């Protein structure tokens, strides 16, 4: 599974990139057919101005989750948790059909 990280409107430091990579890599355990994952980090208007968008490509569809929070770490944690649930539901739907 390939992970691509983009930071929009700012330069992400290595510590943040490593954190995102570590957290996002865990979703592979829930579906080994994930082709790649794209993570976009961006700054929005206040109050919750840190936005994270995760797109996971699996055979036949692209799963997308967006979360905003006061910190990127918090937004990444929320987005990864939501993505795990979405991947499990998607996988069940594919194999039940």
Briefly summarize what is shown.
With 97 residues, the chain is an alpha+beta fold. Helix content is 38%, strand content 34%. The chain has a four-stranded mixed beta sheet with strand order 1-2-3-4, covered by helices on one side.
Describe this entry's structure for a reader:
The chain has two helices and four strands; from the N terminus they run E-H-E-E-E-H. It has 97 residues and is α+β, with helices and mostly antiparallel strands. The chain has a single domain (2-96), classed as Double Stranded RNA Binding Domain, CATH 3.30.160.100. The protein is elongated. The chain starts with a strand and ends with a helix.
Strand content: 25-35%
Q: Work out the helicity level.
A: 25-40%
Number of strands: 4
Low-pLDDT residue intervals, each spanning 5 or more residues: none
- Rg, please? 13 Å
| CATH-scheme architecture | 2-Layer Sandwich
How is the biggest beta sheet arranged? 4 strands, mixed
Mean pLDDT: 93
- CA-CA gap between termini: 25 Å
In spatial order, strands of the major sheet run: 1-2-3-4
CATH superfamily: Ribosome hibernation promotion factor-like
